[in-house]
């Protein structure tokens, strides 16, 4: 489904449809991000989705395309995990990032 997102500012939304593929099993997000024609000036990005799909998107965006302060990339689910299993997995990932030397 696609919904209208009214705003007073400039907003570009790209809806990606899996066309029957199982969630988290396509490269739609990665392909769309890499194919996008980047505008001049400041870009803010909000990219949330399945954990494995975001692994290549985050470094690509941070490689001179989007300033870290203008980027929100976060996994909110993981293929094969229950909601509780995902929460446990995500907390271990966050702890690893916060540990000195990680």
TrEMBL record:
Annotated signal sequence range: none
Spell out the coiled coil positions from the record. none
Stored Pfam families: SIP
**What InterPro entries does the record tag this protein with?**
FNR_nucleotide-bd, SIP_fam, SIP_rossman_dom
Q: Where is the SIP-like Rossmann fold domain?
A: 1-79
Name of protein = Siderophore-interacting protein
Q: Which organism is it from?
A: Aeromicrobium phragmitis
